[in-house]
Amino acid sequence: VGLATVADGPNSIFVSGKYAYTANPGTSDSISIIDVSNPTLPVQLSTAGVGTDPYSIFVSGRYAYTTNYGDGTLSVVDISNPLAPSQVATANVGTNPYSVYVSGKHAYVANFGSKNISIVDISNPSAPREIATTSVGAGPASIFVSGRYAYVANNTSNTISVVDISNPSVPVQVATTAVGVGPLSVSVSGRYAYTADTTDNTVSVIDISNPSAPVRVATTSVGSSPISISVSGRYAYVSNLAGAGVSVVDISNSTSPRQITTVSIGGGEPRSIFVSGRYAYTANNTSDNISVIDI
After folding, report:
1. How far apart are CA 39 and CA 23, in angstroms?
2. What is the DSSP secondary structure assignment for residue 167, as one 8-state letter?
3. DSSP character for 25?
4. Would 26 disulfide with which of 8, 11, 46, 241, CB 3.0-4.6 Å?
5. Cα–Cα distance between 141 and 117 in angstroms, integer?
6. Average pLDDT of the residues in 97-112
7. CB of 223 closer than 8 Å to CB of 245
8. Which residues are within 8 A (CB) of 255 and not within 5 positions of it... i.e. 6 or more apart?
9. Which tens digit of pLDDT belongs to each residue from 9-19?
10. Alpha carbon distances (Å) from 255 to 73, 102, 192, 200, 218
């Protein structure tokens, strides 16, 4: 229902309230803030420079956090004034940080190159600091926190890792399990985790009711090169990199998920999808815009 031009090469999108935020690892190395209060007429309000190659963005309170793949840092950006965001601090993390998830006073970062996750204390946003790391699988590309566990999609080893973060200073990987080939995104809802398996064009469903013994219970085919997944209610929404569209998957029966429709988005290479309320939002990397989709 709407398109908005943003800075070049948006790779990740997050929506909070009436604003959408994108991480843009193109030549600008920036974030964009987009007013989406009118979904049919979204408009970019501002940008702010961050680190090199910001791959992922997460918003919590008055701050946005980006993982900067190119320089191994986490940026903290004050977004309290959407018209004038500003980077207030950075923290060193692992090699090629790919994804970030914020929960409470900690940011959790998946470091693709160093095959680990970092936990960063952000209780003082002006002075974030890495307090712990722990090894996971090869090529960790996405992280999602639910309760006392972090779930990591390991792109190269075709697994997810379950990490006990109940003591953030001493995280412990408690389990791994195989998923599809090339998982690049993980989302958790209730007792299930869902991965977008980019290489074999599937979504995997993993029963995590026992975090120490996760089990893949189902897979289903979606579009071409699924790269990002967002779960809302009884549906999973998947952006397909090669198909320039979104797959809608009915997950009401988690052991028998099925794609029920696809939606074209009017943009190229939707690298990230985020669902908020009745709308899905995609960051379209090659067309330098975001799409708003009425779901």
Report:
1. 20
2. S
3. -
4. 8
5. 10
6. 98
7. yes
8. 205, 217, 218
9. 999 999 999 99
10. 39, 29, 10, 19, 5
List the structure tokens of 74: 């986490």
CA-CA distance, 126 to 103, in Å (whole number)? 17
Mean pLDDT on 144-148: 98
Work out the average pLDDT over 89-116.
98
Distance separating alpha carbons of residues 259 and 252, to the nearest angstrom: 12
Do residues 63 and 77 lie in contact, with contact meaning Cβ atoms separated by under 8 Å?
Answer: yes
244 has pLDDT over 70: no
CB 183 within 8 A of CB 174: no
Query: What are phi and psi for residue 78, nearest 5 degrees?
Result: -75, 115
Q: Please tell me the distance from the alpha carbon of residue 178 to that of residue 162, in angstroms, as a whole number.
A: 12
pLDDT in tens, 204-216: 999 999 999 999 9
Residue 138's Cα: distance from chain center in Å? 18
Per-residue pLDDT at 15:
98
pLDDT (tens digit per residue) in 195-204: 999 999 999 9
- From residue 242, how far is each of 25, 63, 196, 258, 271 by CA, in Å? 19, 32, 13, 20, 10
Q: Which two tokens stand for residue 36?
A: 């989406």
Cα(284)–Cα(160) distance, integer angstroms:
26
User: pTM to 2 decimals?
Assistant: 0.98
Average pLDDT over residues 28-51: 98
The residue written with tokens 């990230």 in the block is 272
Amino acid at site 177: T
In the chain, DSSP finds a helix count (H) and a strand count (E) of 0, 28
Amino acid at 69: Y
DSSP H helices, 230-284, are none
Residue 236 one-letter amino acid = A
